[in-house]
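so my prof wants the structure for this chain in the tokens format not the other one, which i didnt know existed until like an hour ago. anyway here's the sequence
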Amino acid sequence: MRSLKFLLLLLPVLLAAAPSFAQMTEDPTSWKYEVKKKSATEYQLIFHLTLKPGYHIWSLHPGGDGYEISPSYTFNKNAGVKLTGTVTESGKATTTTMDGIDGKITYLNGKIDYIQNVTVKGPTKITGKHQYQICNDKMCLPPKDKDFSFDIK
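here's what i got, hopefully its the right format
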């Protein structure tokens, strides 16, 4: 009987929370991928990210207490491709303090570009995955993995 009362009290709470769970699964990101030719063998792979208003993504070097999940890029092995340097970011960065995070933290919002320079031996396809986490001022969504592909012609 006691557990039935508990269930009856819990049910309205779960039903009221259901719409907020639905909003959490929405992806506030839009990704586009571009290849920019720099020379006969050098290219830039550009990951264009647009975030919906109110959301941010952690910087590649976020600072803080180490719990922030910054974007990461994994390129599949390809004998015809040499990565030059590491992925860099370009966008509107904000460095500030946040409740619940030790130290200063850096994040970006709006439109952000991530750029990886490569040297290639000829036409090829460059593939891999990137992982990222998007947050707003109340919560962070679970990290998300996304496949990418660039065609070098």
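also thought this was worth mentioning. Confidence is low (pLDDT under 50) at residues 3-15, 17-23.
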